[in-house]
Amino acid sequence: MKDGSGQAYLIGSALKQRRYASRFTGGPFSGFETSCEFVPSENPDGSLNYQCYATRFLQSKDRICGQGLDWATYRTYASRSEADIVDGTPKLAATCNDNDSCYDDDDPPGAKAGWNLHPDAKSPVTYDRSLPQLDAEAMISMMNDEPAWLNACLTNRRYPAASPAQ
User: Fold this and answer.
1) Does residue 62 carry a pLDDT above 90?
2) Is residue 16 part of a domain?
3) Looking at the 3D structure of the chain, how many domains does it have?
4) Are 80 and 149 in contact (CB under 8 A)?
């Protein structure tokens, strides 16, 4: 499959990922954790669709920010995370998911942000040192592959606590 430029879609996706990641320092906790599977379609014929869901971790200096999409109970769930690296180990500092009203740059001033700034130590967010640095199939599942919140998370040490909504 080719995009509008004639470039193979998956190659173009991988190059786009590389360009975006190059804005940050990177590090051992950067990468993609992707799962591809056949999920039920909305068609009454019982057909299946091939979908890839991923969590993307980007690292800038001693900060890791993650964006994830998962499939369960016939719907997609989004999640976000922020961790600080302390003595070489990621320490989860904030999480946000579909159940929380995560603040985005396009939200009106004063919108309620739902970042959990005191996540449970038993949170399902894990940080692996051996993740693939690029995953072209993951891009398919990322609705907005360069979200403003992710840039803020990686460049503003006070984010998400300093988001305009809080």
Assistant:
1) yes
2) yes
3) 1
4) yes
Work out the end-to-end distance of the chain between its first and last CA atoms, rounded to an integer number of angstroms: 44
Q: Is the pTM of this model over 0.85?
A: no
Joined tokens for residue 14: 């991988």
pLDDT at 127: 75
In whole angstroms, give the CA distance from residue 115 to residue 163: 10
DSSP 93-131: EEEEETTS----TTSPTTPPP--BSS--TT-S----S--
Distance CA 67, CA 8 (A): 25
Confidence of residue 113 (pLDDT cuts 50, 70, 90): low
Is 124 contained in some domain?
A: yes
Nearest CA-CA partner of 60 in 116, 20, 118, 14 = 20
Residue 14 lies in a domain: yes
CB 88 within 8 A of CB 162: no
